[in-house]
Amino acid sequence: MTPNKKKRKVSTSDVKSLSDGSASKKTKFGSSNASKKELKESFKLSKKPKIRNGPMFNKTISGDGKKEILSNRDRRLRAKELAEARKKKRKRHYNLEQELASLWEKMRHRNIAKEERSKLITEAVQKMKGKIPEIASSHVSSRVLQTCVKYCSQTERDAIHSELKPHFLTLACNTYAVHLVNKMLDNASKKQLAEFISALRGHVASLLRHMVGSVVVEHAYQLGNASQKQELLLELYSTELQLFKDLASLKETKLLDVISKLSLQKASVLRHMNAVIQPIIEKGIVDHSILHRLLMEYLSVADKSSAAEMLQQLSSPLLVRMIHTRDGSRLGILCIKHGSAKERKKIIKGMKGHIGKIAHDQYGSLVLACIFSTVDDTKLVTKIIISELQSVLKELVLEKSGRRPLLQLLHPNCSRYFTPDDMTSLNLYVPSLSAKGEPEADSKMKSAKDQESSDNEDSSVKGITMAEGKESTNADYLHLVEGGKKDPSLRRRELLVDSGLAESLVDTCTKNVAELLRSNFGKEVLYEVATGGWDDILHPTMNEQLNKLHEAIASLAAKSKSEESGEEHVLENFHSSRTIRKMVLDSSKFATTLWTKALKGKCGLWAEGHSSKVICAYLESSDAKVREMAKNELQPLVDSGLLKMRESRK
């Protein structure tokens, strides 16, 4: 340890000598003799002089080495010039791109004359000739080329196509050039499209794993005919089909037929397909219909463990991005049917915030219908799905696809509202995972060729088997779906009545009764609600609200023709007259309300035209009380020939 040094004491004389020093010395602030004036002067001396170096006075060095002061404007201009110089150094065709950009600003306007646009396009194509592959990846030039391809002549389009043909695969993976490739596909001739699809051969799997390249493959798949689609799909099935072009020229469209025709090893095919599919799903590139088709074919040949593992992987929020296509919705239905309660919960939670959009989609609405028919957790379905449907109820009722989830609750699996293809989708199951298909899954897959025609791809899904009872009758409803353990009628009541959806639905119908009656799609929802739904599910809980709805319809029918000057009377309108007629035939309560409030004593006015169908319905009713109620007034009209009865009830 070093010894402590003794501090020297400062005497008063030392302080005086310091304070009496030369004028250049700074005054000590702690000095007792320093006055306030001296302190101020010393503080001023300690300040550094200001240098004029603000934003308005930026010093730069000119070429001769002298400093000059530039204003903000000059500084910006100088920076712009430097940036331009750097771009010219970096980009080989920078000047050409600038010229093309100025031409593009003129040619892209909608109100420009065709002759003027043709001149500009011809000039642009001439400038680009021989350099198109080099500038196609540019942000600016790719836009110019897209406009040229869209509006140019066929000769100019062929010239552009021939220049870009050797570079299609490179351009397909470029962020900017991909839009040009898609535009070229849209405007391509049949021969050019076939050449492009042939150029993709051997690269389909790698492009599908690419975020940008997958868009081009999907676009080509959508534009191609059946054989071209099959050509793109076949190389994803096995290595042999990818390597040998002759093997890929098959008429068979289903994977089961391909395996049987070429005697391929099923295990090898599954391994190859799994190696193709897994990286695509892991990257989240699941929006494309070609992948959905591939997954459906995979499930048609997969064994129990492989199929279960694949469906478990798909049972996630990613599924929402898949159900907008035909095969994608079928994948969603299979995930719901064969999934566990935990997986179904994951799927439904992933739909949160998107229910309205899904319901309006042609294929997404089928997935909602399947959820209503399968999922036993009605509290979860009510909380996430029903609550969102209630907020857009009027729009759904009037929309072709949006009404289908509602009709599935009101009248399950009715062939009037679901097409045969829709019913096929709702009745699908994976044989290897189903209790019905598991014991004889292999034999079913082997005999699938005899059961379905390979020429009709859309008729059904081979290997993904339909449930027993394809007829869309109410008696078969209990056997149509798999996975749900709860009694179907109890599930329906919890989702429709107990959730409050029925009350909202009746209220919406009552408020918009005139619009719904005249609507092509809304009339069907109105009919189901007014008649109480299949199996009278709305009775007796909603009796009071239904009586109000009946009165609202009767009030419209009671109006005279002159009162509805702007619109056709509901009894004379094509859609509304037929809907009211069906209500009279199927609901005695409604028939009584309509007769008492609107038709009694006035039938002679409505004995001709579309309204006569409503009047005749009273004599055709299966309810004896309804027939007797109207017989005294209607029989004289029939006898006189004023009211013509239908020969047979359809």
UniProtKB/TrEMBL annotation:
Keyword set, alphabetical order: Repeat, RNA-binding, Translation regulation
Listed Basic and acidic residues bias regions: 35-44, 437-452
Cellular-component GO terms for this entry: nucleolus
Molecular function GO labels: mRNA binding
Source superkingdom: Eukaryota
GO biological process, one term: regulation of translation
Compositional bias of kind Basic residues: 1-10
Record SUPFAM superfamilies: ARM repeat
Pumilio repeat boundaries on the chain: 163-198, 199-235
Extent of Polar residues compositional bias: 12-34
One Pfam family this sequence matches: PUF_NOP9
Domain PUM-HD: start-end pairs: 99-452
PANTHER family (UniProt xref): PUMILIO HOMOLOG 3
Full protein name: PUM-HD domain-containing protein
Organism the protein comes from: Erythroxylum novogranatense
